[in-house]
User: What shape does this take?
Amino acid sequence: MLKHWARAMLLVGSVFVATGGSQKAPDLTEVGGVGAPPHGRRPLIGITSAYIPDGGYVKVHSSYTQAVKEAGGTPVILPVPEDDNLVGEYVRVLDGLLLTGGDDVPPEAYGESPLEQTKTLSPKRHRFEKAMVEAWLPTRKPILGICRGLQQINVVCGGTLVQDIPTQVGTTVIHRHPKGRGDAAHRVEIEPGTTLRSLLSSASVQVNSNHHQAVKDVGENLRISARSTDGVIEALEFTDGRYGLLVQWHPERITDSKHRKAIYGAFVRACRVEVRMH
Assistant: This one.
């Protein structure tokens, strides 16, 4: 099935071509609400997948695809290829890119040695997603980073990570339940004047949480848009006018549907603007 997705993407690529260049981020309050566009095609949203070496298959939680579909986009699962030859075609064809959660970004990618608590994702997935982000960012097309996706983008932009919050920051806020007992929950404080503050219409929101790593040094052209009460960075945004929203929590499976639709809706609307431009 994933091979068919990839083949379909390449065929669609002959119909339209996305271009780069400096563009002003769209005003997402003026480009329509959540749901399918009234005319034209739904934007194609590439969703990165987890690679499972034992068995050689990939997987994506259905909440990602459902949230994209609900917001009016067409979800396209990106398999982890054997090489990076497809990266250029993916970047050319897709209107938006969603980087999903997963295991830890290899510390070597930001100049550190791994701690005992660090569990790195497969080298194949890391290599592919690094190449995707590096090729995607110059296009200035919309990007959404969820949990490890935020961390991956921050590292590609030159930032670093806290490898283990409990041992390096503390446990006053529980960011991940031990032994995988479902999501934790805590509040985050949102910075004024940010896209996130505008989307959620609140200075503080309750979020789900399932991570033990976080941003330490912020990467180039990024700024902090939210923190938890222990100071851990919970969200980033770009400072160079592009549409990009990066959050540590998982809005696609949050119980507050308004919250989920606000974040995924804004992302897909930004991608819809990309469609209209081409």
